[in-house]
Amino acid sequence: MMALTTKKSPRRSFNDVLSVLGSQRFDVAPAQDGAKRTPNAFQVRKYGCAAEIAAAPDGTPEILARPGILLNGEIARLLDRGYQKFFKTSKVEIPATADHLRSLHEFSEELKKAIGAANLYNESLGTTSDLYQYDRVKGRA
Questions:
Q1: 25 and 7 in contact (C-beta within 8 Å)?
Q2: pLDDT tens profile 103-123
Q3: 99 φψ region: left (φ > 0), alpha (ψ -120 to 50), beta (else)
Q4: 55-73 pLDDT tens trace
Q5: Pick from 73, 104, 103: nearest CA to 91
């Protein structure tokens, strides 16, 4: 019987990740406010989507703001209401289209690969939501 082993790739340093992202045509710029008010946070953008990253204390990259589409300069969170997905910012909420979800999925996969993050099976199948809010259970304790 042959044992299956997984091969761990070495984690990239934050500066290496910034170089990789730039070479893969991501727009990389300092984050306006920085998620969690983290200094030296960067916003990475591609396909109309964005996420915020910064260096963790050990020098590896850390995702501060999960990927979402850009709406009026703000990263929108994906909200699942059971019957449909929506993108929501602090000011606006719009229905998610198939094109939005494809772009977000492609962006997320490319970002995880560039960072060297784990690629989870359920996320590889399609886009996962940030928040689930079903009408039939709304208001239940």
A1: no
A2: 999 999 899 888 876 665 555
A3: alpha
A4: 888 888 888 888 999 998 8
A5: 73
